[in-house]
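Q: Please design a sequence for this.
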């Protein structure tokens, strides 16, 4: 793991305006992340974890503050630049798996590479290597509906890492999994973190997930309460 921060969140505030109500999801939070870390953003429901991941993934922008990634403030990028940032540098894993049901396992993983314009022969090698890493190579021709929840989430992880993204953001990735599959998924992500040096930032309130973190960022009511090794 590098000791030089590659992500810096500086005095970030994010509010949402609902009918007759303003909700402050994040309140002036600051912290840094180094390349290769395996981090869990922890806290109860409504603490701001998902909002934080959306901001780190350039899916939304803060009302105040900076989000510096490799020296660039993604909060002030144009939408087209943020789209390129998401395409080339960020992999997403969601609790609902978000696989494309009409595509096979192979095609779901390949899709991220198609968006990047990776040549066909290279795509095949990268997809199969990634599926083999998580033990799903023999399921390449199956469809998401033919897989268990744990297998579907492994496909989602494959899709996120196949494009050799620098950062993986996983929003409550074990929420829809039983204990065995949840821990299996965490072991896979930790293995990928160690072997491929990919930075993982995972949101969760599950103690079993939190226990696997190298560092935990605790959020409560939108405020940063602690950041521990």
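A: Design:
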């Amino acid at each position: 793991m590098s000791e030089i921060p590659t992500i810096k969140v500086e005095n970030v505030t994010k509010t949402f305006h609902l009918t007759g109500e303003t909700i402050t999801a994040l309140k002036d939070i600051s912290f840094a992340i180094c390349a290769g870390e395996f981090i869990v953003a922890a806290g109860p429901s409504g603490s701001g974890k998902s909002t934080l991941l959306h901001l780190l993934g350039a899916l939304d922008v803060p009302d105040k503050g900076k989000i510096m990634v490799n020296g660039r403030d993604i909060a002030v990028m144009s939408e087209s630049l943020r789209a390129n940032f998401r395409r080339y540098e960020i992999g997403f894993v969601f609790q609902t798996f978000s696989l494309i049901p009409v595509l096979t396992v192979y095609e779901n993983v390949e899709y991220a590479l198609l968006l990047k314009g990776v040549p066909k022969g290279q795509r095949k090698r990268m997809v199969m290597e990634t599926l083999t890493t998580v033990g799903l190579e023999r399921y390449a021709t199956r469809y998401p509906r033919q897989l268990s929840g744990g297998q579907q989430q492994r496909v989602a992880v494959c899709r996120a890492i196949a494009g050799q993204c620098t950062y993986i953001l996983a929003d409550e990735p074990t929420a829809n999994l039983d204990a065995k599959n949840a821990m299996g998924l965490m072991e896979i992500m930790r293995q990928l973190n160690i072997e491929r040096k990919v930075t993982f930032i995972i949101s969760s309130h599950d103690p079993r997930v939190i226990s696997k973190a190298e560092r935990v960022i605790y959020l409560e009511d939108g405020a940063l309460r602690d950041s521990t090794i």
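Q: Thanks. Anything notable?
A: The longest strand covers residues 5-18. The CA atoms of residues 148 and 177 lie 9 Å apart.
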